[in-house]
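Hi everyone,

Forwarding the result from last night's run.
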Amino acid sequence: MHRRDLLKAIPAAALTAGTVGLTPIRVRAQTASDGSAGAQVTAAQRFRVGDAVVTALSDGFITFSPDALQGIDPEGFATLIERGHMDPANVQGAVNAYMIETGDEVWMIDSGTGPIFGPTLGHLPEVFAALGMDPARVTRLIVTHLHGDHIGGATMNGAPVFPNAEVIVPEADRAFWTSEDIRGQAPEQFRPMFDLAKATLAAYGDRVRFISGEADVAPGMTARPMPGHTTGHTGYMLESGTDSLLIWGDIIHVPAVQLARPEVTIMFDTDPELAAATRKDLMASLAGTGQMIAGMHMNFPGIGYLDTFGDGYHFAPAPWQYL
């Protein structure tokens, strides 16, 4: 089966609703969030997908608590987190982005958080510096959805961080996150998300392109609608030669929980029922196929393969390849 056809197994209703190898880089030490010594080095890992070079970039981490999740009680949450050898009182979840170098182009899939979520996040500028990558070289910023941890790093002080990039955004997300009517009905704590989306799109002006459905967004890159987390939440399939990578965005937020219990949702889902259905159908279609996957909240670098495990799933990290 060609990789382009893999996601055809997702029910049409879910798709239309709202419609490798790793290689080291130059690194430098980061300062720990509390100012202490012993922080990780700048986190980036390169690997190949056909002729393209993909770099997983760590923006940092966010802390998840049981009350952020829906459909699981605190005891069930703790059991699954402990099974993953983590502390239920301190669940640190990755925030990843991906850079793709192909031909003369450089594409970013999401931009991280920028300065909006505190000191444990917003590290992409440091990673870019360690890579020796000038943000002005980025030719396309391809957005999975318009949440702050995916577009917060696209601007700084109101100006584009990627001054030469075309920005590709799902139309269904634009319609939702720029709606004054929807913003007015949203809980107060969510309204800044609407303001950020509007400001980001305004900063890039006529360089924003809106897409719908399974659009071809760049040579070898195809959009795959995965609605529910947001109305326009979208994954992207990169294909080069016989290789492919599916970047599935926010299909999973807390791997230790949602791999075992795909029905569990998160408070930031616009449509929790649809998010769960999309996740279940997508994971069922991918498990055991050998399709390489990347996820923004999978444990860094977030690259691997999905297999069934009991009543749930197991995410096997991609092996290191010596290039």
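The chain is about 25% helix and 30% strand.

Cheers,
N.
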